[in-house]
Amino acid sequence: MDIDNIECVSSSDGIEDDEIHHHHHPVNQRHLYPLKTHNKNIIIGSVPGIAPATSVHELLECPVCTNSMYPPIHQCPNGHTLCSTCKTRVHNRCPTCRQELGDIRCLALEKVAESLELPCKYYTLGCPDIFPYYSKLKHEAVCNFRPYSCPYAGSECAVNGDIPFLVSHLRDDHKVDMHSGCTFNHRYVKSNPREVENATWMLTVFHCFGQYFCLHFEAFQLGMAPVYMAFLRFMGDEADARNYSYSLEVGGNGRKLTWEGTPRSIRDSHRKVRDSHDGLIIQRNMALFFSGGDRKELKLRVTGRIWKEQQNSDAGVCIPNLCS
Question: Which residue numbers delimit the RING-type domain (predicted)?
Fold first, then answer.
């Protein structure tokens, strides 16, 4: 957001350098993992992210798109295989020998795939599970160990990784403000609030309760007029996000708006959260009323806090745990 002035007051200075750790996974070290079938185990040497040569895994890799193949698996008269999606891409010509593909199914390879059990592709990130070949992809789409996408939405950043890596990435590459503490007090000033481009925004990262939270404040066009929105995202999975709550408040001239909710996980995209309006929304007329003066300059003060819900074992209800 083209904000002329921003003030942020937090409970302490910033995130200490030793709180952020890079996770490096060596790519030149060979790993051994079991490739199981119903009859026996085969040990295959592998470099993370690179298919081992002459392995069953390589045989099941489409030579065109390099994705794992699932039935129907097609083959040419010379025995070269490819997936059904790429069969139409290559205009029914084998990409290896240029023979016409026809409608030959490689039933033997389909049977081999059916008998395999493979580790999740995120095993180097900590996933310990092994799955039948045909259910492996379904698991990987929701695996808790899969990398997170960078929550810095304004640049459509393609970086992904674990949480410590993304925190460092936001601080070093995007120059995002980092603050420690579970309360915040932001003042947003804009000289001409009517000049609002779609999806202009600000991002601040907060560290509390041993977790990281992304506070978004932005303006975007809703109908004929811009609105201002603030919301919080949790840097972790949805199940863990539900352990926390937050509140936001904005006001002026004897009026105020408040919002209380549960932070959304960064597994949900920035656009998905914004378009769901799951946060504090301030219409332009109300924002100018809060700003006071001649209603020509935007001056909004947004305050808030984050707390952790704790289970009361005696009463069976959640009680807030406020940080000091």
Answer: 62-98
Q: Are strands 177-180 and 200-208 parallel, antiparallel or unpaired?
A: parallel
Please state the pTM of the whole predicted model: 0.67
Nearest to 203 by CA among 225, 240, 233, 161: 233
Under a CB-based contact definition with an 8 Å cutoff, are residues 241 and 265 in contact? Answer: yes
- CA distances (Å), origin 97, targets 55, 77, 259: 21, 10, 63
Q: Where are the domains of the chain?
A: 5-21+162-322, 31-140
Report cis status (omega within 30 of 0) of the bond before 71: no
Distance from chain centroid for Cα 173:
17
Establish how many alpha carbons lie within 13 A of residue 262's alpha carbon, considering only the half-sphere containing its beta carbon. Answer: 11
pLDDT digits (tens, 9 = 90+) for 173-186: 999 999 999 999 98
Task: Of 115-129, 142-156, 207-221, give the range with the top mean pLDDT.
Answer: 207-221
What architecture (CATH level 2) is domain 31-140? 2-Layer Sandwich (3.30)
